[in-house]
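Slide 14.
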Amino acid sequence: MNKNNQKKNNFINVVSTFTKDNIKTIIISITVIFFMFLSYQGYLYYNVNKLNNLSISYFKNKEIDDELISLSEFNSISNQSGFYSILSKLELINKYINKNEFDKSIELYNEILLSKDLDSNYVSIVAIKGAYQLIDIVIKNNNKNYINNINNFISLIDENLDNYIGSKNELLYLVSILSLNDDSSYKNNSELLTLYENMMNNEKISSTIKERVKKIHEFYIFI
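Slide 15: predicted structure.
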């Protein structure tokens, strides 16, 4: 195995390890938080509008086992406007990702993120979830075609919301690493190293995120 192939394999191994150990947990956590927000609003909306056809269709469709019928129903609801349209699009995104239809998922993410029905808080958390999912996809498929989409999602995370500062910086760090030509360029990338130092010194970023980033940093510094 030549030197370039060994570097490539090292790169793939470290980001794959990060994905296996962390990204799934991150995505699940973000999904749970987001759906807690939306479900509470949906619960209130549902109680106020118990005869609303979209709300009834959405909750019934959650229980459908037939994949084709489920997709059809969620597509129908997603073409409407309002709260349940967004929920249905999120359901469809997960279904398309499971089927490796990534472009369809990105299209739906963009529709949600450009929606006038969500404030900056919801837009930020959807963008965070989408960015982590795309990083996972890039790593698993060794395909950098979605890096621009990841950067677009990151740009929509509101910097004025302290709760999301850590996630935004971690995403910027990860996508910068994915954009490297090879492992050795990490040590010479002043922008990436500055981003790392700023994260370590930022009191608004959680120790959990700092520890994840530190492990990756140390791998590249000492290889």
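Speaker note: DSSP finds ten helices and no strands in the chain.
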